[in-house]
Amino acid sequence: MRFLGIDPGIAIVGFGFVDKVGSKVVPVQYGCVQTEAHTPEEDRLLHVYEGMLQLIDKYKPDAVALEKLFFNRNVTTAMSVSQARGVLVLAAKQRNLPIGEYTPMQVKQAIVGYGKAEKKQVQEMVRMFLKLQAVPKPDDVADALAVAICHAHSYGLNSKLNEVLRK
Q: In Å, how far from its chain's centre is CA 50?
C-alpha cells in the first residue's frame, strides 16, 4: 500500500510518499511544495492545492495522513496554515482518498516511542526507518515522512478495532 504523509503549511508543505511492503516501510518520493512570500494568500492556496493534486495524480497513494494543527501563540499563522490544510484535505477528498489525522504527540509516539520526543530525535528515526543517507530537509519534509510512517503502521487498526468492538 502507498501512503502520503503531509505536513501542512502556507509557505512550505512537506510531503512524503512511502510504500508498506510486508512489515517494511520504504520511501517512494518526498519533498515540499513551496509558495512565494508576499504573494496574495489566495494565490498561495491555489498553488498548494494544484501542487498536491499533481503529486497525488503522479504517485497514486492509497491513503493520506495529515498532521493535526497545534498553535498556542500566533493566530495569524494558525489561520493561514488552517486554510492550507483545508485545500490539502480537499485535494485528497476529490481523489476519494481516505484521510487520517495525527497529533504531533501521536506521531512522536509512533516514530520514537515517546510522545514528547525532540524534533531531532524524530528526524533521525525517520532517516533510520527509511534507510536514508541524511535527514530530509527542510524539516517539513521529515515531518511529512514521519506522518506517512505513522499512518502506514496504524492504517486499518482503528477500523479493525471498531469491527471487534461492534461484535
A: 17
Fold annotation for 2-166: Nucleotidyltransferase; domain 5 (3.30.420)
The Cα 19–Cα 152 span in angstroms is 8
139 a catalytic residue: no
Catalytic residue among 67, 118, 124, 163: 67
Question: In Å, how far are 84, 134, 147 from 60, measured between CA atoms?
Answer: 21, 26, 17
In angstroms, the CA 32 to CA 13 distance is 5
Average pLDDT over residues 13-35: 96
Q: Where are the domains of the chain?
A: 2-166
Q: Rounded to whole angstroms, what are the CA distances from 72 to 22, 26, 75, 77?
A: 39, 34, 8, 10
Q: What is the pLDDT of residue 77?
A: 74
pTM above 0.85, yes or no: yes
pLDDT at 156: 66
For residues 159 and 167, give the distance between their C-alpha atoms in angstroms, rounded to a whole number. 13
Whether residue 151 has pLDDT greater than 60:
yes
Pairing of strands 63-67, 2-7: parallel
Active-site residue, 7 included: yes
**Known catalytic membership, residue 143:** no
Predicted confidence (pLDDT) at residue 64 exceeds the cutoff of 70:
yes
